[in-house]
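Write out this protein's structure.
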Amino acid sequence: MPICAVCESIGETVSRQLLAVHALNGCDSTSAIYGHGKIGKGSVFRKITKNSDTLPLTDVLSLTHVAQSQVAEAGLKLLVLLYGGKPGDTLDHMCCTAYMNLIATGKTRARPEHLPPTERAAYFHVL
């Protein structure tokens, strides 16, 4: 399949975001996000490419000369978006809120893999 044809069909903006989406979402050689992994590649792609606020964040992930802290910050913001958070939310707060909701409403035991990752776990995933 000619890559130029793919780039033309998805557009320049989405083409710029494609590698960051692939890296964040995981593959055979990198970790994946539970519930958003190999099965959900299309949903991660749509969530990131349909939101115009993500372009500066995916650009940071695609640059070669940026500080590790900038990569981590951009990646964490993208993961907040993937888990349904709003700008200003943190993964730790979202994880705690999701856990409390599961405990309050769940009839079965809460399973950690169904919660958003902690900021520290996400930090290492992003790097």
